[in-house]
Amino acid sequence: MGLKKAFLRLATVGLGIGLMTSAALAANLRVLAWDGYADPDWVKDFTAATGIGVDVVFIGSDDEIWAKIKGSEGQDFDVFAVNTAQLQRYIKADLVSPIDITKLANQKDVLPRFRDLSQVSGDTKDGKVYGIPFCFDSIGLIYDTDKVKPAPTSMSVLWDPAYKGKILAYDNGEHNFSFTALTLGYKDPFNLNEEQMAAVKAKLVELKRNVLSFYTTADEAQQIYQNNDVALIWANYGQQQVKALQKIGAHVAYVNPSEGALAWLDNWVISKGVRDNAAAEKWIDFMLTKKVSGELSERTGFGNTVVESSSAGGNDKLVWLNNVEDPLKRSDMWNEVKATP
Amino acid sequence: MSGAGSTHAAERRLSQLVTVLAFALPVIFVLVPLAIFLVYSFFGVDQGTIVYAPTLGNYVRFFTDPIFLPVFWNTIVLCVSVAVICILLAYPAAYFLTTLKGRWRYALLMLLLVPLLMSYVIKIYAIRSILGLNGFLNKALVALGVLDQPSTLFVFNMNAILLTLSLLLIPFAILPIFLSLERIPQTLLRASDDLGASGLQTFLRITLPLSLPGVASAASFVFVLAIGDFLTPQMVGGISGFTFGRILYSQFGTAYNWPFGAALSVALAIVVIAAILMGERFGRSRGTSV
Questions:
Q1: Closest-CA residue in chain B for A332?
Q2: Which of A10, A74, A287, B254 fits a disulfide with A95 by CB distance 3.0 to 4.6 angstroms?
């Protein structure tokens, strides 16, 4: 994977140098995206269909996107991908342009939950649309179909004493507070008051006593699964994690809990320094075609906004990740949970 | 004459330069970073950004918050236990090595040190597989009839950290003990034999006291390496094996509270320095008194 990325980077650099000469003739569309969001065959198809050349730069972290966009005040890129939790920060810093969705023909045919963007938390501000969702994954529950019967429907199964010592949870205070808040029925899991925080903390101490261990990487969870008696995994890595487990022959299935599953959602946004707005709109509209979106899900395992995928069924409730009230406090309280005997 | 004088001057300048470099490198790469750490521990954090105003808040929090001192203390006890286990296992191994003759001695020593060439993380992964419920240890114990069914005693708790750290750090204990045993003059042992002492008496009154400096430095080595480790507890500690290293690590990762992390590091550094001084002091005084 790392090697593949390195090669891609290398290829991008090579391509960039090769294109420098042609860039002088026609301004290419400058795209900043994660690996898997702008595959070479799509870029080729896009250029063939529209006559617009594309330069893609791949990034590896949220911080890197911020550094690249903020560093040039948005002048270095036309279109980039960013998740809903991050987007508001870009809007506030005046680094992105509002998008006229009437120019995006394919946006009308997206899955119902993405049709009204004012309902997608984080994508709009003051009635203007800034982000067009195109890729997501939920953080659901992986369960061993041989050991967990009937199939679970809620995260509350993690507290079931029947599975004591057979549960893998994820080592992250922020997410754990959010999902436990959802399990307790709180409306806004990202903004908890003192009283709710205390209740969630007490509930997490109970959770801790029921789990086998807290993992950090998908590989780690898989290795622990292979060497121990694990029935349930809180799946921070969603579909990728399920598929990897199924590949090694594990009898596992995936469910989004009924109280709502946390989920990340990536959007295409147009930067403030966009050179050709129409070209940027064409790129986004192209990414929303059934072909590209379908292939995106096939290749990465992530959900897309156009074709149904295994990340979430039409009726699954998804709660888009958002910035939490106080990350430091959540991290401290998570340490307290772990230190409680 | 003048030509010789200028080469002398050049040589002197060169040696001065070397001297300056010899002093500057440790200062730049060791002392300055440590000083920066110390300074950071007196800063605070507000809304995710570091506030550069001096405060004792981090230290007050370390001593007053009910979670830090107990975890700190438990971690010290854990690491002392690791050191004791390592010594108990390494001493016989090192002693055995010194009884070997010639080439065999060093060939075997090299074999015992081979694990140090492997990646640390891979070793933890491997040990975790061995300790797991379906792992080698449980399978072996069940097959031998020691256990009726696989036990969860060996992984994702304090036992697991103790076992894993001991296994990982034994080479660091073998080496100094072996060196101190090897340095004992054979003439002393022969003299003791001539004077009619039994093998056990010779060991208890000659070999053991003379090897104590090696034991002391081995213990301080192992303790220091164990207490600074956060990865082993993170990977095999599960829910009950929460150590100081894990708290410290979280301050730099998710919490983004570098100043508090720096204060915790200072607390850790004090313990580490104390351990090293004790190891050295004990080792030296025993060594010179005989």
A1: B255
A2: A74
